[in-house]
Amino acid sequence: MLEQNGGNPTIGIDAAGDDDLLRAASLGDRGAFAVLMERHARPMLTLATRVTRNADEADEIVQDAFLKVWKMAPRWEPDREAKFSTWLYRVVLNASLDVRRRARYAPLEEAGDPVDTAPGGLDLAVAHQRDRLVSQALDDIPNRQRAALSLHYYAGMSAPQAAKIMELTVPAVESLLVRGKRALRSALARRGITGIGDVT
Amino acid sequence: MNEFDIDRLMRSDAARFEASSARASKVVAGVLARLPDRAPLRPSFLSLCLAILAPFTRLAVPMAAAAVLGVIVGQDLLAAQTPIRFAEMLTTASVDIAGL
User: Fold this and answer.
1) What is the predicted ipTM?
2) What is the pTM of this model?
3) What's the gap in Å between the CA of B3 and the closest CA on chain A?
């Protein structure tokens, strides 16, 4: 449907831009919408899981975000300044931080897909301990600093990229990152973590 | 703990929560199953009015320009022609009356 609807017929659906896929989705093209979701689902799930520490919550957040996309697709304005991915990151980050604020601490056993599939018992215990401490320390720092740190560490974004998502200037985000790291260090210190050796 | 330690700690913390492709596919399938049908778009009253008036709005500017131009030119013509017409009428009338 995407190719019949005015797109360049030499470009396959997988190579179509997000705006083209959204336009096709706005006409009810589920295939184009599936391609759009497959393109963005994994980084969104990773970000949501890292912020919420809960795989089920993260899945729900990402599903809700995509359902929102489906509903707003007919009203999407491709010429506007914000890219689709920027908007999606914003929605997923805010929803994840909201869930985190409500839950404060989710059981780490439910958190998703560790990279190391066969860690030793001690390693796993240390990793869980580190997760819990980092998570609790992040809960202690101001919201905007937490959002900046989440985008930087959990989505691997630079300050300019994070600035677009947070709708702030680059210096403002850089300042949030500096203050956030300082606040995180203090929060960890209050939990007895004064060196990297305490959690590795 | 210095900034480098914070970076190392946060990156190792983040690495544990990488979402797999299989999980992403599951989420995509879940969304597709929950997608509501796309209802036909109901245009708002304003957009309906604009759609009806669209052909006229396209012509509005040239029509207005033509009208203004017509008024200006018409006034000039009236001003230039009126004394002549009166003069002609008076001459004609005086000839008719006088029988000259």
Assistant:
1) 0.77
2) 0.69
3) 7
